[in-house]
Design brief:
CATH topology: Arginase, Chain A
Order of helices and strands: EHHEHEHEHEHEHEHEH
Shape: globular
Largest sheet: 8 strands, parallel
CATH architecture: 3-Layer(aba) Sandwich
Strand order of the largest sheet: 2-1-3-8-7-4-5-6
Oligomer: single chain
Strand content: 15-25%
Distance between the termini: 31 Å
Structural class: alpha/beta
Number of strands: 8
């Protein structure tokens, strides 16, 4: 978004309120790899970003000091080390009081981000996705994939399931039990059929009620959208939401106590047109607007 780039040793870092970060890693992917290239193409598309959100009138760059904090280090052949490297990077960001907004990467990257920003207290979450990502294991023994981050986050006490809502869930399952686990923990799951019955305003009100006024994270997987809008993703599911719906939903989060967010699973190799990255960048801007308003309000109310 044409923001200044600062590394984590820059003396100006304490002045930053929101940091945009890329995680070029897809080691948790179980289907079609390629999301490691997401941050690069999202950055390319973000040169199209402007300052003011026409619908809300919000200018996030006036509300907060924003900076591009670069990409996290990763090890593309070592999953466990990558999780540690990402967590360490975000821990340094969190220690400076900076709210992170991330371009992924596959959805497993949300787990180390939460390990960094939610270790003092669990966060709630508004989660847009075609999948719950609360599975336990893939391929017999793998506990860390892009289908398991929120199960691990709940088990580790990072994510409060009773303050978590998942919106747009659809697609076939391997078995019923994996789909039910999150609901048994208290997650509010709105599948795509209920989503259409409730309508956008109904879903927004439900989300606001579920997360309340506690610290809340926003996680947006582009496969929440129908693949006609975002074909460049690892696990597409037909029958999804429109980009217009997505913008309305994120704008409906204004006033919540937001502490960070991400847009994940943009996989440029499956969309040479670059449209999926444009969608990803635009949704990052929408999240940035509501996040900046929240950060600004919170800091202005601090003693």
């Amino acid at each position: 978004m044409r923001l200044p780039y600062l590394d984590l040793d820059d003396a100006r870092l304490p002045q930053v309120q929101i940091g945009l970060v890329g995680i070029p890693w897809d080691g948790g992917t179980t289907n079609r790899a390629g999301a490691r290239h997401g941050p690069r193409q999202i950055r390319d598309q973000s040169t199209m970003a402007r300052n003011v959100n026409r619908a809300s009138g919000l200018n996030p760059f006036e509300l907060c000091n924003c900076a591009d904090l670069g990409d996290t280090p990763v090890n593309p052949v070592d999953l466990e080390e990558s999780l540690r490297l990402i967590e360490d990077y975000y821990t340094r960001i969190h220690q400076q009081g900076i709210a992170p907004l991330t371009a992924g990467g596959d959805h497993l990257v949300t787990l180390p981000v939460m390990r960094a920003i939610a270790r003092e207290r669990p966060v709630g979450m508004v989660h847009f996705d075609a999948h719950t990502d609360t599975w336990d294991r893939y391929f017999g023994s793998s506990r860390y994939t892009h289908g398991t981050p929120f199960r691990r986050a709940i088990e580790e006490g990072l994510l409060d399931p009773k303050r978590t809502i998942q919106i747009g869930i659809r697609g076939a399952l391997y078995n019923d039990s994996e789909n039910d686990w999150g609901e048994r923990q208290g997650i509010r799951v709105i599948d795509i059929d209920e989503y259409h019955r409730m309508g956008i305003e109904g879903v927004i009100q439900e989300a606001r009620q579920v997360v309340g006024d506690g610290p809340t994270y926003v996680s947006f997987d582009v496969d929440f959208l129908d693949p006609v809008y975002a074909p460049g993703t690892g696990t597409p599911e037909i029958g999804g939401a429109t980009t217009y719906d997505a913008q309305q939903l994120v704008r409906g989060l204004r006033g919540l106590n937001l502490v960070g967010g991400d847009v994940v699973e943009v996989s440029p190799p499956f969309d040479p047109s670059g449209n999926t990255a444009l969608v990803g960048m635009t949704m990052m801007f929408e999240i940035l607007c509501v996040l900046a308003e929240s950060v600004s309000k919170r800091q202005s109310n601090s003693p």
